[in-house]
Design goal:
globular; Rossmann fold; alpha/beta; 2 domains; 217 residues; six-stranded parallel β-sheet; 11 helices; 12% strand; single chain
Amino acid sequence: MIKTVVFDVGETLISETRIWSRWAERLGVSAFTLMGTLGGMAALDRSHSAAFELVRPGFDLAREEAEWERDDPHGMRNTFDADDLYPDVRDALAAIRAAGYQVIIAGNQPERAYDALVALDLPADSVHTSEGWGVSKPEPGFFAKVAAVAGREPAEILYVGDRLDNDVLPAREAGMRTALLRRGPWGYLHAERPQAGVADVIAGDLHALLPALRRLA
């Protein structure tokens, strides 16, 4: 029986549209150009950093982030706030929690995202980031951390994310139940792949999760 629902962050809870738009401005290309190349990288199973390299050869992410912070120390840069939440997040998480499930947020995020997530005051029992843990998805150690903070057996956990490679497949390998969210470029692309069939749930939004949890009980 599933007792805990764990949520990825980017394109699961948080829309990254404004973040990518700010990156496009920083890189000196249109938002359409950057998002189009990001979609291409998603289709080719390449990382978002490959899109940056495509529009700016020789791109160094760490160096660019440091320079951006220096240039705009008080700006949003590549972080998020309540305006970036998908509209179904608060109500869906609250309903899942009210139904008796433990709700945890844990995704591949820099440690500074922890404060941004906590500031959102979402209906969750705990919040965690990969950098805070020192291990990132899809590494097995990330999902071991998820089980440890939940205090559950892996089979009692449903991991919800928008990607097969980072979310569904490694969580399933760790023994967890999985939900693939058709949201963001990776979510739509990955939901059409044959491998998506291994997910316990394929959902169009977060409101679909509670009925699915009841079916899986």
